[in-house]
Design goal:
Elements: H1 22-44, H2 51-63, H3 69-82, H4 88-102, H5 110-123, H6 130-144, H7 147-160
Helix pairs in contact: 1-2, 1-4, 1-5, 2-3, 2-4, 3-4, 4-5, 5-6
Length: about 170
């Protein structure tokens, strides 16, 4: 489980009673899409299914107001289905894309995209290199964080690291 049992109001939009602005929601989605896109090639090496690539594109389309939240949410399920039956490396890369597009529906999926992307990267290397790859991918992701959401995401990583397989520990 990647989402906490109790929702953090910082990841709920203002119009739904939380404190998250639309601008920050969009930044979270774009960051999640970047995390997923960074490992997309690991999925593409195992499958020619275009649903994960489509999910990343639709995440950006949602940010631009080109699709609805409902369309993005539906895409997340289709993308997760693309992951079924694949080796872990490809499965985690697809799940990262599914989590990225799901940010439109629940902003807290941003950390799921990042965590699955890290897991995909880890599965792409031999066992003795996994921990180094985890740190490298986590650091790359942190370098992509826009300043406006940096503190929020880093705090979220600390709070949810234990339910995200501890992939955010540096």
């Amino acid at each position: 489980m990647i989402l906490p049992k109790q929702r953090d109001p910082r990841f709920i939009t203002i119009r739904r009673g939380g404190t998250l602005t639309d601008t920050h929601h969009h930044l979270l989605a774009l960051w999640a899409a970047s995390c997923a896109e960074h490992v997309l090639h690991l999925f593409e090496q195992a499958s020619d299914d275009d649903r994960p690539q489509q999910a990343i594109a639709l995440t950006r389309a949602w940010v631009n107001g080109e699709i609805t939240m409902k369309e993005a949410h539906k895409t997340a399920f289709a993308t997760n289905a693309a992951a079924k039956g694949l080796p872990d490396v490809a499965r985690f890369a697809a799940l990262a894309a599914g989590q990225a597009v799901a940010v439109a529906h629940v902003a807290a999926h941003e950390l799921g995209a990042a965590a699955y992307a890290i897991r995909a990267a880890m599965e792409s290397v031999p066992e003795n290199e996994k921990d180094e790859m985890r740190r490298k991918e986590c650091q790359w992701q942190r370098e992509q964080l826009p300043d406006a959401i940096r503190e929020l995401v880093l705090d979220d990583q600390q709070l949810r690291n234990n339910i995200c397989w501890f992939v955010f520990s540096l």
